[in-house]
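Give me the fold.
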Amino acid sequence: MNAMFRHLIRGACVVTLISLFTAGLAQAADVAPGMRIGVRGEITGISADVMKVHVNSGENVVINLTKDTKIRAVTLANIEDIKPGSYIGSAAVPQEDGTLKALEVHVFPPELAGSGDGHRPFDLVKGSSMTNGSVGDLVVSNGRVLTVNYKGGQQTILVPEDVPIVNLVPGDRSLLKVGVKIVTFVTQSADGTLTAQSISAGKDGVTPPM
């Protein structure tokens, strides 16, 4: 077998593995058409425009970075950081009464208010959604219930005591280091190449919960 043929086989295997990986994500998360693919894991290598990630499900993937890749830091927060008027996001699952049960809550700084405004399917777990909007009513004494308002709608979200709450703040590539836990949303090109559209990187050992 000549060197060129071996190279072609290796390339085909890489593309196939990436395709299987992204297809598996899509099937597992019930990804809606046009939704970006969520990749959650730990950085194992980083260079100027390439990031290697060990994914929570066990795969190792290579993800390209561009000048347009948005990077944000994830830091610990608590329910007291959320007030009426705060702009938040929450991955959640539906309850029988039509309200939502939060899987996580992330708090945006004022300068990022309006980011991703709305309610849509999300890929954290099967059947989950993401709601981004401004907090209206906030009841901490009665089971930590938030009313979240966004353009065209409103959701009531129960936040259990054990649900992680984090801050999501602007960051840069200095956050991207080996060992850092991340959540990145990527797109896949026809040849299987993955490109990061956004990266949320845990700071000071934080694991992004979204």
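The chain has two domains: 3-71+181-201, 73-168.
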